[in-house]
Amino acid sequence: MADEQTPDGTSATETAAPAAPLEVLAPKERRRRKRALRGDGPKAPRTPEERQAERDAIRRAKARERSAGRAKARAKAKTQTREATPVVEAVVPGAPKVRQGIVVSDKASKTITVRIDTSRRHRRYQKIVRSSKTLHAHDEHDDAHAGDLVRVVETRPLSATKRWRLTDVLERAK
């Protein structure tokens, strides 16, 4: 292959200078050179009061940003709760609570153990959180058996642990 000539009369291979090895710099030196390229230069000497006033101004600006962000989050949460609020039975003061659950045990005489499953959305992480409680209910005629879906209603204390009464069996176990 013949060397191609450039307009100034030198060959293309002669003009290509060998690549210089990259200079290895310490992190502090790298930052110093970067600052020098920015052109900020050293700041004029300031009094402590001027420095404090600058810090206060920065803090006020950040506080305004945080406040605006919180207001925006509140507005967003308010619109989401309006849209996704399920219809819940109205809680009447003094009215007994009504729960629905699955019978876990019917071994005791005239008593059933009912598991109440609840699921709700976590306020911060929006993940569905499932939990369950067991309660003892009075079953006068021993109608319910393990696995049945039942409705229980709150009542006066009937024993050390019984505070509920069976109203009806909604679905029998298979």
Task: Tell me the layout of helices and strands.
Blueprint: H1 12-15, H2 27-38, H3 48-84, E1 98-105, E2 111-121, E3 128-138, E4 149-154, E5 162-171
TL;DR?
The chain is an alpha+beta fold and 174 residues long.
Q: What are the defining features of this structure?
A:
174 residues; alpha+beta; OB fold (Dihydrolipoamide Acetyltransferase, E2P); 2 domains; 5-stranded mixed β-barrel; 3 helices
Descriptive account of the structure:
The protein has three helices and five strands. With 174 residues, it is α+β, with helices and mostly antiparallel strands. The protein folds into two domains: 27-83, no CATH class; 98-171, Nucleic acid-binding proteins (OB fold (Dihydrolipoamide Acetyltransferase, E2P)). It is elongated and about 100 Å long. It is 30% helix and 26% strand. Strands 1-2-3-5-4 form a five-stranded mixed β-barrel. The model has no long low-confidence stretch (mean pLDDT 86).
Instruction: Record the strand order, biggest sheet.
Output: 1-2-3-5-4
The total of beta strands comes to 5
Task: Count up the helices.
Answer: 3
Portion in beta strands: 25-35%
What's the gyration radius in Å? 38 Å
Count of individual domains: 2
Name of the CATH homologous superfamily of the largest domain: Nucleic acid-binding proteins
Unreliable stretches, pLDDT < 50, 5 or more residues? none
What CATH calls the topology of the largest domain is OB fold (Dihydrolipoamide Acetyltransferase, E2P)
Mind telling me which CATH architecture of the largest domain this is? Beta Barrel
Helix content: 25-40%
Structural class: alpha+beta
